[in-house]
Write a structure and sequence with these properties.
The chain has two helices and 16 strands. It is α+β, with helices and mostly antiparallel strands.
Amino acid sequence: MKIITYSIALILWLLPLIHANAQEKNIESKLEILENSKDQIIEQEREALKIEVELINERLERNEITQAETDKLKDEVAEKRALNIENRLNIIDNKIALLTRNNNDTIIKKQKTLVVGVFDDGEIINVYYHSKKKYDRRTTSDLVFAFGLNNVITKGESLNDSDFEIGGSRFTELGWAWKTRVFKNTNWLRIKYGFSFQWNGLKPTDNRFYVDIGKQTELQEFPEDLDKSKFRLDNLVFPVHFEFGPSRKIEKENYFRYSTHKKIKIGLGGYAGFKLSSKQKLKYSKDGQDVKEKLKASYNTNNIIYGLSGYIGWNWAALYIKYDLNTIFKDNPIEQRNISLGLRFDMD
């Protein structure tokens, strides 16, 4: 129940950040699309001019028009296409100016409860000012969501000999991350840091479940036929990654940004934090009755979590791997460490 409460609280806390972040990125995305459309307009008009000139030449070859008429027609279509380019580019520039101006402009909002100014007609308004767009924004923030397969690396064994089902053992991660450009005049290296809730699930094989036998915890066969056996560790961690990769610089009159849209990204780093809870879920039938058990205990698991993680991706999705350097259990004679592989989504 606590982890559900944590998740709801996190989502509620993140919603205003996500909304504000999405609004600003939506404006920047629109501006980027408009800028890219300029090259498309020029290419379209040039291609249309090429077709028109070819048609005029064909008329000349068929002796439908003279050379003088041909030259005149070519000048006319060339002038028309040049004006088309100029007019269409002006439209794009006006749209860019409108978006930029409205993003930075003063917002005037009607309200009756507070007097800020009175106009001649007696209407009372409040005036709110948007902060001017920062010329250089070195730090951005994003929601982080990841999911995939989870398992255990046991010392002296391979994953083929794992005590857990590969398809049935899964992990989920949800958090918030800030990204800061390291150098002033280049964006090839960034630091990404934040916090995440991790839910690492393990599904034991061979009808087994975990049993606390004092200072150690071991897998034992369950006396009934299990329909479900899940062991889960819930953690709160604070990841830090060095992210590097190419980017594109977008320069405007009053600000500039580095964009990693449609660029490859590589992140290498790690995380540290602490365990929130450890629990088991068992489902089985006994005496004709369906039984569900939720067992919450320490199971001698480590309370301090730390490990290595990395990702490689394109745009907003990445292949993600994380590996706990701490052992799952404190005093078990055989060392076992959690490992996860999946997909990571950053709203970047």
